[in-house]
Write a structure and sequence with these properties.
Elements: E1 6-7, H1 15-19, H2 27-43, H3 52-65, E2 75-77, E3 83-84, E4 87-88, E5 90-92
Antiparallel strand pairs: 1-2, 2-5, 3-4
Helix pairs in contact: 2-3
Length: about 100
């Protein structure tokens, strides 16, 4: 991938249209949807339907509860190969979130 491009599992181009009613379609919004859908793989099922509102709510809940591992899957390509988290050549969405490594309730 080229610098600035995003790796967003489960958040293909179809979400552009679906995200529109939820505000501006930003990389942050797309990353939140991807992270929520990655989390669903680990502890819920997708049950065959896509619900952007439910995805955004789940992403907010995961982050609020300090369940940060799903936020490691969405990542933006960068020019260098230094490690950022456990990726090289990418910056995980998790690493862009304030306080991602120190969770306090």
């Amino acid at each position: 991938m080229k610098r600035g491009e995003w790796h967003l599992p489960f958040a293909d181009d179809e979400i552009e249209f679906d995200l529109y009613p939820h505000g501006p379609v930003t990389p942050a919004c797309r990353a939140r949807v991807s992270c929520a859908r990655c989390a669903r793989v680990s502890y819920l099922t997708h049950d065959g339907r896509r619900d952007i509102s439910a995805d955004l709510d789940l992403a907010d809940k995961l982050q609020g509860d300090g369940h940060m591992s799903p936020f490691e899957h969405a990542a933006m390509a960068v020019d260098d190969t230094r490690y950022r988290g456990n990726f090289r050549g990418f910056v995980q969405w998790r690493k862009m979130l304030p306080g991602e490594a120190v969770f306090q309730r």
